[in-house]
Amino acid sequence: MKAMVYKGPGQRCLSDVEKPSMRKPTDAVVKILKTTICGTDLHILQGDLPEVAAGRILGHEGIGIIEETGESVRHFKKGDRVIISCVTACGTCRYCKRALPAHCEDGGWILGHLIDGTQAEYVRIPHADNSLYLLPDNVDEEAALMLSDILPTGFEIGVLNGKVKPGDTVALVGAGPVGMAAMLTAQFFSPAKIIMIDTDKQRLAMAKRFGATDIINPQRQDVVAQIAALTGGDGVDVAVECVGLGATFKICQDIVAKGGHIANVGVHGKPVDLHLETLWIKNITLTTGLVNTTSTPMLLKALNHIRVNPNKLVTHHFTLAELDKAYEVFAHAAQEKAMKVVIAAH
């Protein structure tokens, strides 16, 4: 089968590899229908995650059709259409029992990281009963694909960790896919203001169309001054960091209100400064996290009732044979006006 294989920092190759097979009775093999590329895949290629071995098939998002199930799989059968969670959960370890499957002792984020992933024609899914979700016929496939990772990530690590509540002022620093996902799901809680901060005017315009009440471009505006003007000098109740850079993390520290929350969603490949010399007195809460995907069933219901439409984040379509081109487009998102790319595997 064809698959995108990581060859080491800065190197990837669309290669012919062996089709995955069952290893344990709790496994399922899924025929990929659609997959996508995540910013974390770019971090892997940049060498930010040295634990990823050369030869690994990339990707941790996808929707597909069950090809085969192990004898212990009870909730799925051959032919079922499914959403693949980016987090694999055994369901029985101490972390899964604490609703923290991101840290599952026999799973967590392993697809495209520690085991072969979804940017391929087929993928093996360990602990299938806890790591797949049935895809209803009435749910748009591309919307469902966003439930593999970005929508629950933005919701859980940005909105829920940030304790967004009605009437809040929320600032999202970074209008990429996860920032947009956090913006879409923050609207569940009716904040008074949703402020998107980014240097890309195309993405800012998209954010405005999708629900941002205000937009700020740090290349053209003083972010702190603009936030002060919008909040009566108080700062924002929730600042969500969605990029993973020192500069964007500092913006969050500069604009958070007394008693506010900083929710860090971005993947940081380098150390950043935490200015406790100014923050210690402000009674802020700082959270970090890897998505657990425990919100996926609720978000799937929201899709069913058209409360959120994440498929509007899709800007480009490719076939599996065009995966190299898809990576180039996604890696140069500003020039290509790209948000999420969808790759049809079959």
Percentage beta strand: 15-25%
Described by the principal axes of the CA atoms, the overall outline is globular
Overall pLDDT confidence: 96
Q: Please tell me how large the radius of gyration is.
A: 20 Å
Say how many strands there are: 15
Q: Which architecture of the largest domain per CATH?
A: Alpha-Beta Complex
Task: Please describe what this structure looks like.
The chain is an alpha/beta fold and 346 residues long. It is 28% helix and 24% strand. The strands form three sheets. Strands 3, 4, 5, 6, 7, 14 and 15 form a seven-stranded mixed β-sheet that branches. Strands 10-9-8-11-12-13 form a six-stranded parallel β-sheet, with helices on both faces. It contains 13 helices and 15 strands. Strand 8 (169-173), helix 6 (177-186) and strand 9 (193-197) form a beta-alpha-beta unit. The N and C termini lie close together (11 Å). The protein folds into two domains: 2-148 and 292-344, Medium-chain alcohol dehydrogenases, catalytic domain (Quinone Oxidoreductase, Chain A, domain 1, Alpha-Beta Complex); 152-288, 3-Layer(aba) Sandwich (Rossmann fold).
Keywords:
single chain; 346 residues; alpha/beta; Quinone Oxidoreductase, Chain A, domain 1; Rossmann fold; 2 domains; 7-stranded mixed sheet; 6-stranded parallel sheet; 13 helices; 28% helix; globular
